[in-house]
Specification:
heterodimer, A: alpha+beta, Ubiquitin-like (UB roll), 5-stranded mixed β-sheet, two-stranded antiparallel sheet, 7 strands, B: alpha+beta, Aldehyde Oxidoreductase, domain 3, 6-stranded antiparallel β-sheet, 4-stranded mixed β-sheet, 3 helices, 10 strands, about 30% helix
Chain lengths: ~80, ~140
């Protein structure tokens, strides 16, 4: 199935109850993708302001374009070290 | 060397590899897992996960930033993921430079950048639940 692959990490995976999901959408932006993701996984909603996003492995802002075949990552505050 | 590994980090080997005749300093920072305690509970271990290969690439970028800013000849950053028991190394940074100043400064820079830009997360697994560090999400009440 072609779609936008969404990977979730750390606390976001915990809240969503999954580490990966696919969203069927035409070309859109991260900001427009978020409500679809949050509706599917309501546990994510309270985290919204803490999250960063990556598109195809690089940090991206809310107005970044995403298309079917792209990989979006939902990144909670990093805590390496 | 920039690496994300699942086994214990051999810090001694990293230091040995960094020693070279044109350098008078090898600076090493080792981040180790610390056990906190409260309300009769304690951390049993930490568990790390990474978004790869983005995390690998971010480590390499930090290395490139260091080489732009300072006169260094070797930079190694190794971060461990998976279960890390108390007191073990979760990250090791080794920098060799002709003089000590850049080695100290660059190793400090590396750990500070890791904590901002590298997509790695840890959760503390306590005797009574777990918590994702930085998100305060988990099963501890």
């Amino acid at each position: 199935m072609s779609g936008i692959k969404v990977l979730l990490f750390g606390a976001a995976a915990d809240r969503a109850g999954t580490r990966e999901t696919v969203i069927s959408a035409e070309t859109t932006t991260l900001d427009e993708l978020w409500p679809i993701l949050a509706e599917r996984h309501p546990g994510l909603s309270p985290m919204r302001d803490t999250l960063a996003f990556a598109v195809n492995g690089e940090y991206a802002r809310g107005d970044a374009s995403v298309s079917p075949g792209d990989e979006v990552a939902v990144l909670p505050p990093v805590s390496g070290g | 060397m920039f690496a994300i590994v699942e086994e214990p980090i051999d810090v001694g080997a990293l230091i040995a590899d960094a020693q070279r005749p044109d350098c008078g300093a090898v600076s090493t920072f080792v981040g180790t897992t610390r056990v906190d305690q409260n309300d009769g509970a304690s951390v049993e271990y930490l568990e790390y996960e990474a978004y790869r290969p983005m995390a690998d690439r971010k480590l390499e970028e930090i290395g490139a930033e260091i080489e732009e800013r300072w006169d260094v000849r070797e930079v190694s950053i190794v971060h461990r993921i998976g279960r890390v028991d108390p007191g073990q190394a979760s990250v090791a940074i080794v920098v060799a430079s002709p003089r000590r100043g850049p080695a100290f400064e660059a190793s400090r820079y590396a750990i500070e950048r890791i904590k901002v830009v590298v997509p790695i997360w840890k959760r503390e697994v306590w005797s009574d639940g777990y918590v994702w560090v930085g998100s305060q999400v988990g099963t501890r009440t």
